[in-house]
Amino acid sequence: AGDVIEISPVGMIMIHNPWLWTQGDADEMRTAARFLDDVKETIINAYETKTKLPRDEISRMMDDETWFHASKAVELGFADKIMFTENSTAGDSVNNMSSRRQVMNCLTDAIKARLAAEKKSASDNRVNAAQLYKKLPERKI
C-alpha cells in the first residue's frame, strides 16, 4: 500500500504463498485450495504491477518463500527506497547495515563515543546503559 514504499536499512521483505488454517470435508478442502489459488493470483498481480517482474518468476519466489534485504528489495522493485537516506537507491553504502552484528556494532560505537565524551568507563555505567542510550542523539544512517 502507498505510493512510495520505503524499507528500513535493517529491514527485510519476505514473499510467500498465501496459506490458511481450515477444517472440513474434502469439498471444503478443495474450496479452500481454490481460494488460496485465487489469492496467490491477486498477490502476483500486485507484485507484478509494483516490480515489473515476470509472473512466473514472482510465483517461483513465492513458492520458495524468498527473503530480501533492503538493497535487494529496492533492486527488484518491492521497495522504492531505503529509509533515513536522502535519494537512496540500491547500491548505497547504507545497504550494508542489514546484519544484526553491524547494527549492534554501530550502537556500541555510539555508546563508547558518548562514554568517552563524558570521560567515564563502561564498567562505571553498566547500570546506567539504558539511561545512556536514551541520551544518544538521533542518528541518521
Oligomer: single chain
Cα distance spanning the termini: 25 Å
Please list the strands of the largest sheet in the order they lie side by side. Answer: 1-4
Figure out the total of helices.
Answer: 5
Low-confidence segments, ≥5 residues, pLDDT <50? 90-98
Q: How confident is the prediction overall: mean pLDDT?
A: 81
Number of E strands? 4
Strand content: 5-15%
Output the radius of gyration. Answer: 22 Å
Model description:
The chain is mainly α and 141 residues long. 48% of the residues lie in helices and 9% in strands. The protein contains 5 helices and 4 strands, in the order E-E-H-H-E-H-E-H-H. The protein has helices at residues 26-51, 55-63, 70-76, 100-117, 129-135, and strands at 6-7, 12-15, 66-69, 81-82. A two-stranded parallel sheet has the order 1-4. It has a two-stranded antiparallel sheet with strand order 2-3. The longest helix has 26 residues, at 26-51. It is elongated and about 70 Å long. Mean pLDDT is 81; it is low at 90-98.
Summarize the structure.
With 141 residues, this protein is mostly helical. The chain is built from five helices and four strands.
Give the secondary structure arrangement, pairings included.
Layout lengths: L5 E2 L4 E4 L10 H26 L3 H9 L2 E4 H7 L4 E2 L17 H18 L11 H7 L6
Parallel strand pairs: 1-4
Antiparallel strand pairs: 2-3
Keywords:
single chain, 141 residues, mainly alpha, two-stranded antiparallel ribbon, 5 helices, 9% strand, elongated
